[in-house]
Every structure is written in C-alpha cells, then in structure tokens.
Design goal:
This protein is an all-beta fold. Helix content is 2%, strand content 51%. It contains one helix and 16 strands. The protein has a seven-stranded mixed β-sheet with strand order 1-16-7-14-9-12-2, with no helix packed on it. Strands 3-13-8-15-6 form a five-stranded antiparallel β-sheet, with no helix packed on it. It has a two-stranded antiparallel sheet with strand order 4-5. Strand 4 (28-31) and strand 5 (36-39) form a beta hairpin. The longest helix has 4 residues, at 11-14. The radius of gyration is 16 Å and the shape is globular. The relative contact order is 0.33. The model has no long low-confidence stretch (mean pLDDT 95).
Length: 163
C-alpha cells in the first residue's frame, strides 16, 4: 500500500490546488472606526454560469492513519471550506493527469485557516481530524454536472506529519 505523510498547510505548497485563507498583512485594511482589520480578497471564487451557495457540512471524525480511496472534483466551480467549530481538517488533493488524479498530497488545515479549491481540483472527501467537524462551504449552485468521482485501485494510507 502506498503511504504519504500529511504536511502543514501553507499557501505556497497549496497554490497549485487552490487558495489558503488565513490572516496575512497582504491587502489588509483597518475598518469599523479602527476596531476591525479586513484581510481582503483572499480567494479566487469561480462559479462559471452558476451562482454562489453557502452550505453547512457536518462531518464525522476521521483518524490517522487515514485511508484515501476516493477523490472527487467539481469541473464547473470552485469550493471553499471554512471551519466553524475549531476542528482541523485533513485536505487531500491530486494534480490532474489527463483527466485522472495524479499522486496525492495531504495537508493539515488548522482551525484558523480555510481553503478554496480551484475549479476542477481533485480532492478527498471531508475528513475532520479526531472530532466531528462543522464547515461552511461556499460552492457553485446551478445546472450541469458538477461532480466527478474517482476510486483508487489501491488505497493510499495517509499518516500525520512527522515530528
């Protein structure tokens, strides 16, 4: 069985797959009479011919080692995951290789981070780490088939970060 180690989520490492939403000094401005800092335009949302919708995903706890056997993608729109109850998320993604997922990578999304998956990015299913997780999800609502799934012939075992 193939094994991969999850790594901490960083904007640089995740860039081929999407955006990391976290506090940065980039495009930050003070609002509300100096009582709030707005960290502006952190994700490139793409809904094509559809519209933005907000849903809540209430996912059961997953544990390490995690078995990755199914990935999916949304060819018609991006999909953002925003934690609501402080539970970290295991994010697995794969590059596209001629219409099928390539070698997976795994990231640990901290509770103070969120992600936006670019349109067409292969990714694993919702995997809250060690506790039930609640996430606001912003994605495309509209006509057309916006879900493709792929099952790996041989599952991949994901381990926690080393160290």
């Amino acid at each position: 069985m193939t094994m991969i180690a999850a790594q901490p989520l960083t904007a640089e490492a995740f860039a081929p797959f999407g955006d990391v939403l976290e506090l940065t000094d980039r495009d930050s401005l003070t609002i509300n009479a100096g009582m709030c800092q707005r960290h502006h335009d952190l994700a490139q949302l793409d809904f094509g011919e559809g519209r933005a919708g907000i849903s809540l995903f209430d996912g059961k706890a997953r544990h390490f080692p995690y078995t990755l056997d199914l990935v999916e993608r949304h060819p018609l729109g991006s999909q953002a995951f925003i934690p609501m109850n402080g539970v970290p998320l295991l994010v697995t993604v794969c590059p596209d290789e001629d219409g099928i997922p390539g070698t997976p990578q795994a990231f640990i999304m901290r509770a103070d981070q969120a992600i936006n998956l670019h349109k067409g990015t292969w990714h694993g299913v919702l995997a809250p780490i060690d506790a039930q997780g609640l996430y606001a999800v912003v994605d495309r609502i509209g006509d057309g088939t916006n879900l493709e799934e792929f099952s790996f012939a041989e599952p991949i075992l994901v381990h926690p970060p080393k160290g």
